[in-house]
Design brief:
One of its GO terms (molecular function) is DNA binding. The protein has 397 residues and is an alpha+beta fold. It has 18 helices and 7 strands. 45% of the residues lie in helices and 10% in strands.
Length: 397
């Protein structure tokens, strides 16, 4: 028997006295004694009666109540429990209301262990914080699409290409993190945004470096005996990045070998992958001179606390009117090795702290070429001091 539907009218609902009124098909209107009113739907699922509220009146009109009833009756015809389905929809809606800022912070937190110093320097998070979150931070991550990303990064896509690339990369990680949390996101949104933005016009520029023939004059000009001059001397002598130099501790040195902790080496994040540095006679002399400034075990302390900053040596070169920067001395050294020695590629790259070869190759090759590097670094120090011809081939390694 077909049950009649739409028994009620809008005026009848509005003027109803306390009681329960059927609209047909299991939809009921209940007017309470206190004057309030609400809608509910009765359905039968899996042999039992289920009753679900559809909202209060007049916030939910008769028309809206009928639309909801039609939706949930259709579910019961498919053998689905409408109450459980609605609860599932509500849970999904709540999940997908996570805004990008919260997801980004959670993604950052989960990756801190992979980052240098647990990400305290903020370099991983800053591209998002500066260029993405101001515009998209309050947007539910499930609603972010390629056009949102394009419009956000378009202002810096060509003018600050490297920063934009990092921001896009971090955003992609955040989207994958959101998916892992069970949120409904478009994992291809960043790739689609790249297609909309087009190829970046800006070309990355190498850090300016002195030609290796000019390095000895610069090295010999660092004569004031200050922490900055001594740190820069040791940086040039060892061809390392600034972080190992700045965080050098006296207890890391044994004889003429300095063991740099893996966390201080860019390509050796695993603490077990410490890096041995052979110290030339000149490097040992610089360390001995700098030891007078040592504080809390650190050879190059700052004026106030901690160690000298990442910018200390750069600012000194800047004050001299130079465009070159400390990191460029690594390039100077590498060019000298290539042009003036017959050192193997593996020896030259290991001097700079680079990890050479794949994981399998490194597993079988246990040497770090310490003896070959010791000879090479001693020769480099002689070049810096101007005590021998700079262009003579020196190694047969």
């Amino acid at each position: 028997m077909v049950r009649s539907l739409n028994k009620l009218s809008a005026s009848a609902v509005k003027s109803a006295i306390p009681g329960k009124y059927s609209d047909g098909g299991g939809l009921w209107f209940y007017k309470r004694q206190d004057g309030g009113a609400q809608w509910f739907l009765r359905v039968h699922v899996h042999g039992r009666r289920r009753e679900m509220g559809l909202g209060s009146y007049p916030a939910v009109s008769l028309k809206e109540a009928r639309e909801q009833a039609d939706k949930y009756r259709a579910m019961t015809r498919q053998g689905l429990d409408p109450i459980k389905q609605r609860e599932r929809e509500q849970r999904e809606a709540v999940r997908n209301l996570h805004i990008l800022k919260d997801v980004a912070l959670d993604a950052f937190e989960s990756r801190k262990a992979e980052l240098k110093g647990d990400g305290l320097a903020g370099r991983w998070f800053s591209p998002l914080e500066l260029h993405v979150l101001p515009k998209l931070g309050k947007v539910p991550v499930s609603e972010i699409d390629q056009t949102d990303i394009r419009d956000t990064l378009a202002p810096i896509w060509h003018t600050k290409a490297d920063t934009a690339r990092k921001a896009m990369n971090r955003l992609s990680i955040c989207m994958r993190h959101a998916a892992a949390l069970g949120l409904d996101v478009d994992l291809q949104a960043t790739e689609k945004a790249k297609a909309l933005l087009g190829k970046q016009r800006h070309k990355a520029q190498n850090i300016p470096a002195l030609h290796w023939k000019d390095v000895p004059d610069f090295y010999q000009s660092l004569t004031d005996g200050s922490v900055t001059h001594l740190a820069l001397r040791l940086l040039i002598l060892t061809a390392l990045r600034s972080k190992p130099i700045r965080f050098l501790r006296l207890d890391q040195i044994e004889g003429d070998v300095w063991t740099v902790p893996g966390e201080n080496m860019k390509s050796r994040k695993d603490a077990a992958q410490d890096f041995r540095v052979p110290l030339s006679t000149e490097a040992l002399r610089v360390i001995d001179e700098a030891s007078a400034f040592a504080r809390d075990g650190f050879l190059f302390p700052s004026v106030r606390k901690g160690v000298i900053s990442d910018a200390t040596m750069s600012r000194m070169m800047e004050r001299r009117g130079m465009v070159e920067r400390p990191h460029g001395f690594r390039s100077s050294f590498r060019d000298w090795v290539a042009e003036n020695t017959n050192a193997t590629y593996e020896v030259a790259e290991t001097c700079m702290g680079h990890m050479v070869g794949g994981a399998v190759e490194r597993a079988y090759r246990r040497t770090d070429f310490l003896e070959q590097r010791r000879m090479l670094m001693e020769r480099w120090s002689q070049v810096l001091l101007g005590s021998s011809g700079a262009s003579v081939r020196v190694l047969n390694a």
